[in-house]
Design goal:
The model has no long low-confidence stretch (mean pLDDT about 95). It contains 7 helices and 2 strands. The protein is mainly alpha-helical. It has a two-stranded antiparallel sheet with strand order 1-2.
Length: about 170
Amino acid sequence: MNLRLDEIVEALARTPPALRALLLPLPGSWLTGNEGPGTFSPRDVLGHLILGEETDWIPRARIILEHGESHPFDPFDRFGFRERDAGLTVAELLDRFGTLRQENLAELESLRLGPEDLERKGVHPELGRVTLGQLLATWVAHDLDHVAQIARVMARRCQEDVGPWRAFLRILQ
């Protein structure tokens, strides 16, 4: 594994403040656009990330450490946040995400994982056998994927207004 655990923690710790800086205090029109049916708005991404903090990353790490391959991961409902978060503001979602991420990173560090732990295996319901190291690296890549998604969706608000510069803006291609 190329990533070290301390690098994983450092990268994951940056997502909540980066999203707070990117999203607050923007009006709702910046926060509710998406890329079409079945995609997330920036607000949806926050709900999705919160759901992952609650039911995905650390719970799956615990399953690997406690049960290995004998207990597959529970399926993850990537849209399971929608009803639960309907009445919350973006500021409230950001606060919740920041708190959960801080708690999960503290728990991750408390596990005192060594290189041999990162090779331990679990079973993903769709992907099959995965390692703890792969799970943790995916956590980082998942964050970055959604940060890029938020930036893409937000850039689309400028799509009609940039005129001929659109040819130079890969984010709008």
